[in-house]
Design goal:
33% strand, alpha+beta, 38% helix
């Protein structure tokens, strides 16, 4: 089982979401702790990262297998999430 940690940006992004999406994201993060490969691999500037799609929200994260930590980098709407980071 991995530990899920949100960086400062991801915490702020999560607070900005509506209540409906906060609940869906929380469920996805709980599932992520038991299965770090739940998301899709990313490429380009996000090489080494994964993403989970909860339309229209995206969760971008990286996995540290040695320390069993999942670091969430960003949570947000699909239109701006890839431009911010």
């Amino acid at each position: 089982m991995h530990q899920v940690k949100l960086n400062n940006h991801a915490e702020k992004d999560l607070k900005k979401l509506s209540t409906i999406y906060k609940q869906k994201v929380a469920r996805a993060l709980n599932l992520l702790a038991s299965n770090p490969f739940l998301g899709d691999k990313m490429s380009g500037g996000f090489l080494g990262s994964y993403r989970i799609k909860i339309p229209p929200v995206r969760i971008i994260y990286q996995v540290d297998h040695q320390n069993k930590i999942i670091q969430v980098r960003a949570i947000g709407h699909r239109q701006g999430i890839y431009k911010k980071r």
